[in-house]
Design brief:
The complex is a heterotrimer of chains A (about 350), B (about 325) and C (about 260). Chain B has about 325 residues and is an alpha/beta fold. Chain B has twelve helices and twelve strands. Chain C has a domain of about 180 residues: Rossmann fold (3-Layer(aba) Sandwich). The longest helix of chain C is centred in the last third of the chain and has 16 residues. The chains are: A mainly alpha (about 350), B alpha/beta (about 325), C alpha/beta (about 260). At the A-B interface, helix 4, helix 5, helix 6, helix 7 and helix 12 of A face helix 1, helix 2, helix 3, strand 7 and helix 8 of B. Chain C: Keywords: ATP-binding, Nucleotide-binding. Chain C: InterPro entries: AAA+_ATPase (IPR003593), ABC_carbohydrate_import_ATPase (IPR050107), ABC_transporter-like_ATP-bd (IPR003439), ABC_transporter-like_CS (IPR017871), P-loop_NTPase (IPR027417).
């Protein structure tokens, strides 16, 4: 017995809905609303205190930095909606870059081969995180802390073992470098200003992630495994597969970031990336992701990255005393997040 | 996703094959170093404990210098490092417990190291300090200090900038709270006739270094010299100067292959080298001399390995050495 | 007419501990079978076997006359057994319509471009709830904003909509007040009237007697009794349920301390 066939045409229109009121209600309920308001506030603030903040070239710089955070913050947000953390993201980016450059260099292969091998290795790292999580049932905080430390050690140890130093050797004279750089680290000129291609990657990822989250079965499952894993399992959602998939999504973004790091700077320092994992998480949280899972958005994480980028660079544009830099950064972030939380509370109370 | 990954790799492999330029093969065509023991003295155990963090190019070169000297002098070389002073002191203690025949140590945070270094001296282990701790070395009972005075190095940069007619310099600090870095900037301020601005960047996040420098140069068009405090950041600074449309000159402390290449193509003005290889090599060699012949360098004064100002004319010779990681 | 599901002498052990010993139960189309028992009586073990979370060690478990051994909740669902758990019925932060279709989302398009049929999902949710007698103004509100009774109802409506033949309800009224419990029981009978076989797990004999056709009593993992409605009165059911002779013993003890 499937759904009673008589019922389908019975109630054709929805009664008592005013479409205008409803769409406003839906907008107010969006997780990224607070972040958008926070971003506007930060933007207006620095427009006043920093003269050079409004130049189009400054805009390009801010967007570039935001994109390097945003590319990672978006899949990290999806993972957090799915109820898990990943502390290994920062160093995984470096691992991905190292694998790519060292493989190409040691094998004297076309750099595209290294790029491909790096994709496989990075996805395998994500798979490892995911499988460890669902098999051991330990908190993801512990598992990815372990991966984080292991990768930090592997990055340094293997690089030194293979290269004799802790930074990699230049591969800019190798075949395929130019075309790979075009894909991962080129500049596009728009209105006489050069924009980094990472901004496109960032926007692309936001679009794909948003689509997955809101319009696919997988998206429904991501919300469900984060909001109530047991309930989801009880109605037949493949919880383990969804979580492993999320970790591999993070790894995929780490691969993009890693290749950017490699082709933008040519030489990779193996100690890079430590600490960035917290920035990605911070961006996702500023963007409205709940630390407990089940709630958030990809657009929000992107806006969170933008807030972080504007604040970070805005302080430089405002020429504030360098010693106080970190303090200002922390205070601005706290304010943006508080504003975000306040807006959300107001929105929820109204709807 | 896995299927897509496989497809991407297969595509890459098919389209790829090998690179006929660069890579390992090109490197192997270049020459090799290393060697074997040149003496028949007993196999002494010499330990080196530094305050290096993980993955620091600079300390890598110090280590390879020390290892080269150890090979030549038939010495068993032990190396330990920790950024955190308390743990560095514990490492020194463990070396004392191993009854080493000589101890080489850095004094980045002298107060934290005082007790354990004095303990080593008391246990009859000859101690030589390197790199940092010039002022405390003698008082703690070390036989000699090999290194560069960070203030003097900074002053040398200031003087060089004056000679190049620079008006406003930007000192780029990639590690907040590092005393040596602050001293370098202070040294520049002391001798430089123009103005010096400081910029803190996140050293572990290259895009941050890149964009912060770009932002600073976009804001302050008067800056005509950017001084980075570590070699890996010079190439990024060159990129940032280009992006910001600035005509500032990039100069740097320390040296690596990229900086050497930069000196050669003119994108880096000058580099101030404190010769890390020499610090490691000389310290171990000096220990051997002391053990086998009772020699000691310095006459109670620090033995300085820098600053050595390197410019375009030094570049061709340097390139070979930096690529193999000994300069 | 054969039972939709029938358990005969089913046992389950966890290591050395016997959780269930020789329990028999049947559920028929258009009937409500109530499983009564105190905490630790083995009700949740029984539910887990029927729902496919655990497998029984001994005895027979048949679905429409066919021998069955369910390996996953998904398999149970495919065989027409839907289970609604007390606290695990729904994901609170998700909108009602996403909850309604969770795990069985309809899509349009194919391959990587398959997308949710959102309009149909919203519409169907609204209609299915309406058919159960719930008129939600906005199916987009997070299901956590509904009352506990309403949430159970959404879960029941979901099971009915997806063509379940057997509906297993785990303590649907346990955390609810009197009025809410009544509402839920109304939807349980609504499900029965649509032709489902219902297994209602509860420790409240009053609720059970209101709607039940068959009663199975569990005590410390063993079956303490099995009755048709006409074979037993509410008083007797209550007496047996609340420990029978044990309770009389307890009342003696309490009255003695009272007089002392």
């Amino acid at each position: 017995m499937k759904a009673a066939p008589t019922a389908e045409p019975a109630v054709a229109e929805r009664e008592g809905d005013q479409p205008g009121h409803k769409s406003l209600g839906r907008l107010m309920r969006r997780p990224e609303l607070g972040a958008v308001v926070g971003a506007v506030a930060v933007f207006v603030f620095f427009s006043f205190v920093a003269d050079s903040f409004l130049q189009t070239s400054s805009f390009s710089t801010v967007l570039y930095y935001s994109s390097t955070i945003g590319i990672m913050a978006v899949p990290v947000a999806l993972l957090m909606i799915g109820g898990e953390f990943d502390l290994s993201t920062g160093v995984m980016v470096t691992s991905s870059a190292l694998v790519s450059t060292m493989f190409s260099y040691q094998m004297t292969a076309n750099v595209w081969v290294g790029v491909g091998v790096s994709l496989l290795v990075t996805l395998a790292l994500g798979l490892f995180n995911g499988i460890m999580l669902v098999r051991t049932k330990l908190p993801s905080f512990i598992i990815t802390l372990g991966t984080f430390l292991m990768l930090t050690g592997l990055n340094l140890g293997l690089t030194e073992l293979i290269n004799g130093t802790v930074s990699t050797k230049s591969i800019s004279d190798m075949e395929g470098f130019a075309s790979a750089r075009d894909l991962f680290a080129s500049q596009l000129t728009l209105f006489d200003v050069e924009f980094q291609v990472t901004i496109l990657w960032w926007l692309g990822l936001v679009a794909v992630a948003t689509w997955i989250l809101l319009r696919t079965r997988t998206g429904n499952w991501i919300f469900a495994v984060g909001g109530g894993a047991e309930s989801a399992r009880a109605v037949g959602v493949p919880v383990a597969r969804t979580k492993i998939g999320l970790y591999m999504g993070v790894a995929f973004a780490a691969w993009i970031s890693g290749q950017h790091l490699l082709f933008n700077y040519d030489v990779v320092q193996s100690g890079q990336g430590v600490g960035n994992e917290l920035i990605y998480i911070a961006a996702a949280v500023i963007g409205g992701c709940l630390l407990t899972g089940g709630y958030g958005s990809a657009v929000g994480a992107a806006v969170g990255a933008l807030i972080f980028g504007m604040t970070n660079k805005g302080i430089t544009y405002a020429q504030w005393e360098a010693n106080w830099f970190k303090f200002f950064l922390g205070a601005m972030l706290l304010l943006a997040t508080l504003l975000n939380a306040w807006i959300r509370k107001r929105a929820e109370a109204k709807s | 996703m896995t299927a897509a990954a496989m497809a991407a790799v297969i595509a890459a492999t098919l389209a790829a094959g090998c690179s006929s330029t660069g890579g390992k093969r090109a490197e192997e065509e270049r020459e090799q170093s290393k060697g074997q023991s040149a003496v028949d003295t007993p196999r002494w155990k010499i330990a080196m404990v530094t305050h290096s963090g993980e993955g620091d190019t600079y300390w890598d070169i110090v280590q390879s210098g020390a290892e080269q000297a150890a090979v030549k002098d038939n010495i068993e070389f032990l190396y330990g490092h920790d950024k955190e002073a308390g743990r560095q002191a514990q490492l020194v203690q463990s070396m004392i417990d191993k009854k080493v025949d000589g101890l080489i140590v850095t004094l980045a945070k002298p107060e934290a190291m005082e007790k354990v270094v004095k303990k080593a001296v008391k246990a009859g282990i000859p101690v030589v300090t390197i790199n940092s701790g010039q002022d405390q070395s003698k008082a703690f009972g070390a036989l000699s200090h090999i290194g560069q005075d960070e203030n003097i190095a900074g002053e040398a940069v200031g003087t060089e900038l004056n000679e190049r007619g620079r008006k406003k310099a930007l000192c780029v600090l990639h590690e907040q709270g590092n005393v040596g870095h602050e001293q370098r900037c202070a040294g520049i301020e002391k001798t430089f006739k123009g103005k010096v601005d400081k910029l803190y960047v996140e050293g572990t996040n290259m895009p941050d270094v890149d964009s912060s420098l770009t932002a600073k140069l976009q804001t302050d068009k008067k800056i005509d010299a950017v001084v980075t405090l570590g070699a890996p950041f010079a190439a990024t600074a060159v990129k940032a100067v280009d992006q910001a449309g600035s005509d500032a000159e990039v100069d740097t402390f320390d040296l690596d292959a990229k900086v050497a290449a930069g000196l050669e193509d003119g994108s880096v003005g000058f580099a101030v080298d404190q010769q890390p290889y020499l610090q490691g090599y000389e310290a171990v060699d000096l220990m051997w001399l002391y053990r086998s012949n009772g020699n000691m360098l310095g006459g109670g004064q620090p033995v300085l390995t820098g600053p050595q100002i390197l410019t375009k004319k030094d570049a061709p010779a340097l390139k070979k050495y930096t690529e193999r990681g000994t300069r | 007419m054969s039972a939709l599901i029938e358990l005969t002498g089913v046992s389950k052990r966890y290591g050395n501990i016997k959780a269930l010993e020789a329990v028999s139960l049947e559920a028929h189309q258009g009937e409500i079978t109530c499983v009564l028992g105190d905490n630790g009586a083995g009700k949740s073990t029984l539910i887990k076997i029927i729902a496919g979370l655990h497998q029984h060690d001994a005895g027979d478990f048949t679905i429409e006359g066919e021998e069955a051994r369910l390996r996953s909740p998904r398999e149970a669902l495919n065989r027409g057994i839907a289970t609604v758990y007390q606290d695990l019925a729904v994901v609170p932060l998700m909108p009602v319509w996403r909850n309604f279709f969770l795990g069985s989302e309809p899509t349009i398009g194919r391959g990587p471009f398959a997308r949710l049929d959102v309009e149909r999902m919203r519409r169907t949710t609204h209609q299915a709830l309406l058919r159960m007698g719930i008129d939600l103004r906005d199916v987009d509100q997070p299901i956590g904003t509904l009352s506990g009774g309403e949430r159970q109802c959404v879960a029941i409506a979901r099971a009915v909509h997806f063509g379940a033949k057997v509906l297993v309800l785990d303590e649907p009224t346990a955390a609810l007040g009197v009025k809410q419990s009544g509402v839920v029981l109304k939807y349980v009978t609504a499900a029965r009237d649509q032709g489902l076989g219902v297994v209602l797990i509860t420790h409240n004999p009053h609720h059970a007697y209101l709607v039940g056709d068959r009663f199975v009593l569990l005590m410390r993992g063993e079956m303490a009794g099995s009755y048709q409605k006409e074979e037993i009165s509410l008083e007797e059911l209550t007496r047996q349920m609340s420990g029978g002779s044990e309770l009389e013993q307890l009342s003696h003890e309490l009255s003695r301390t009272d007089t002392a």
